[in-house]
Automatic annotation (TrEMBL):
It comes from Drosophila busckii (Fruit fly). Pfam families: BACK, BTB, DUF4734. This is CG9970. Residues 166-266 form the BACK domain. It comes from the Eukaryota.
């Protein structure tokens, strides 16, 4: 055994000059992507499966009750869009009842489909205005701001004619949509005198009449038409409305009334209503202030210079949206006074010309003084 072991060659003899430090990985380029010889299997998109899951009645975790109707929903979908659902406590039986006066049963599935991005049945411009208003009411209750903005633009109060906008007032009132109510009153301009001529004006509440008479957008030819409109409303249920004289007269911008008309208000009145109005302390004060400033304006001088003594402060009122109706006699001179009876006669002529006769009224850029003068319009 010893001899055989001695006969085995030494390793150095068999592998002369062998490099023990040779590194295999130094010769492999690892910077390139290694191509997989086996392709990944193609999986279907998750979106259809997710949509099926969200719509599947058997997987829903919330039942919304409105009246006698049940709607099976995914709570997570409702919470994504509605802060109302984010806050509300979900009952143990997962049945949540919503007030029918806030959300109509026909509206809720439209909103839920909108949340699921199924807009085939909820394109705002394809819905009637009444349905859109119900839609808005529900979205307002659920606090879905994005949907509120879309519906507001779809209804487009400011793009409607003034007649169409006013026709929506009753519906808006029934739904208690204050934003739309304010927008409708702001929309009334050239339609104002047509409204004053109608029975509906007489039936307006004190708040509504004040809102109109306080507006700078209402279309009139002179402030006398505002004064006479207030007189017409007060006279309708006199003396019941006598208590509203001060509040209603505060809407009249006495500084815009012609001096001759102001002087006539300081004279003896022919009717009980006018007498009561002109004897009201607040009205007397406003007439006095307005008359002083209107008179000094005629002489193109300040009130202190004209009278030689200090006069009460008086803020110059903002002008109205002045209009001109060529078929109205007293519109041919804004500074000419006319009687209440003449105003009523003009109002009586408007219904005969049709509800849209206001569209022929022109906005004035400057005052006119006779029918031959050129009335600037815009």
């Amino acid at each position: 055994m010893k001899k055989q072991r001695d006969l085995l060659p030494d390793s150095a003899t068999l592998e002369p000059n062998f490099n023990e430090e040779h590194n295999l990985f130094e010769h492999i380029d690892l910077s390139k992507e290694i191509e997989c010889c086996q392709a990944y299997p193609e999986y279907p998109s998750i979106i259809p499966k997710l949509e099926f899951y969200l719509r599947d009645k058997n997987t829903c975790d919330l039942i919304v009750l409105i009246g006698e109707h049940k709607f099976y929903c995914q709570l997570c979908v409702l919470q994504l869009y509605s802060p109302y659902f984010q806050r509300c406590s979900i009952p143990a039986d997962c049945n949540l009842r919503l007030p029918e006066q806030q959300i109509k049963p026909r509206i809720f599935p439209l909103i839920y489909n909108w949340m699921l991005q199924d807009t085939a049945d909820v394109r705002p411009k394809q819905l009637q205005n009444r349905l859109l208003l119900d839609f808005y009411k529900a979205a307002e209750f659920l606090e879905i701001k994005t949907l509120l903005d879309d519906i507001w633009q779809a209804i487009g109060i400011m793009d409607m004619s003034e007649t169409e906008a006013y026709a929506m007032l009753a519906t808006v009132r029934a739904l208690e949509l204050l934003n739309f109510e304010v927008a409708i009153f702001a929309r009334i301009s050239r339609f104002f005198l047509v409204l004053v001529a109608a029975q509906q004006f007489m039936e307006l509440s004190l708040q509504d009449v004040c809102r109109l008479l306080n507006s700078s957008s209402v279309g009139v030819n002179s402030e006398m038409e505002i004064f006479y409109s207030a007189l017409r409303w007060l006279s309708h249920e006199w003396p019941t409305r006598q208590a509203h004289v001060t509040q209603l007269m505060s809407c009249v911008r006495f500084g815009l009334l012609p001096p001759l008309f102001l002087r006539s208000l300081q004279s003896k009145q022919s009717t009980q209503v006018l007498h009561c109005i002109t004897q009201c302390p607040l009205v007397l004060e406003q007439i006095e202030k307005a008359f002083i400033y209107a008179s000094t304006e005629l002489y193109n001088s300040g009130p202190d210079q004209f009278f030689g003594f200090d006069v009460p402060d008086f803020e110059v009122p903002e002008p109205r949206s002045w209009i001109f109706d060529k078929r109205c006699a007293h519109h041919h001179d804004q500074h000419k006074t006319f009687t209440y009876q003449q105003f009523l006669s003009y109002l009586q002529s408007l219904p005969k010309r049709g509800i849209n006769c206001w569209q022929s009224f022109k906005y004035l850029k400057e005052s006119i003084h006779c029918c031959t003068a050129s009335a600037g319009t815009k």
